[in-house]
Write a structure and sequence with these properties.
Number of helices: 3
Shape: globular
Oligomer: single chain
Radius of gyration: 15 Å
Length: 160
């Protein structure tokens, strides 16, 4: 069943984000995340699903905040970097703290960043659902978004 479930979900194209946080507003942590969705417009709320044993989840819970970095279409390398678990990933990308929560904003890789505070969490299997209230939004690039499906990256470009 696990293999069938993984294959089914791999065939569902989705946008790619990197969820970032700072452990006690110090060390930056982050991971590639495609388990993200909007939850409510009023208040502006979204949810992300993070692996229960993830150091990024620990940083989110310790700081009570996180950023959702929606990657632009040319940021496949950043998606792969943050999926790899490389310990030097924040040394290899340009980032700065967001204005509200000071979570890392990936300013060259993201087309938009949602700066969030944790509203609540729910344990769900081997993951934790984190509900975040979006406190601020920054936009950097708008011409494309990175997608992942069928175990490969692609991009969706804005057509005018």
């Amino acid at each position: 069943m696990k293999a069938d479930f993984r294959e089914m979900m791999a065939s569902f194209p989705t946008g790619v984000s990197v969820v970032t946080a700072r452990n006690g507003h110090a060390t930056p942590w982050g991971m590639t995340c495609s388990a993200l969705c909007s939850l409510s417009v009023d208040p502006s709320t979204l949810l992300v699903c993070l692996r229960a044993e993830s150091p990024t989840l620990r940083a989110v819970l310790a700081s009570g905040a996180f950023a959702v970095n929606l990657l632009h279409g040319e940021a496949e390398g950043v998606a792969a970097l943050f999926a790899s678990g490389a310990p030097d990933r924040f040394d290899r990308v340009l980032w700065r703290p967001t204005t509200h929560t000071h979570s890392p904003a990936l300013v060259e890789a993201a087309h938009a960043v949602g700066d969030c505070t944790v509203d609540r969490t729910y344990a769900a299997g081997d993951h934790v659902i984190v509900v975040g209230v979006v406190r601020a939004i920054e936009r950097f690039r708008t011409e494309s978004a990175l997608l992942y499906g069928f175990r490969q990256y692609s991009q969706w470009s804005r057509q005018e």
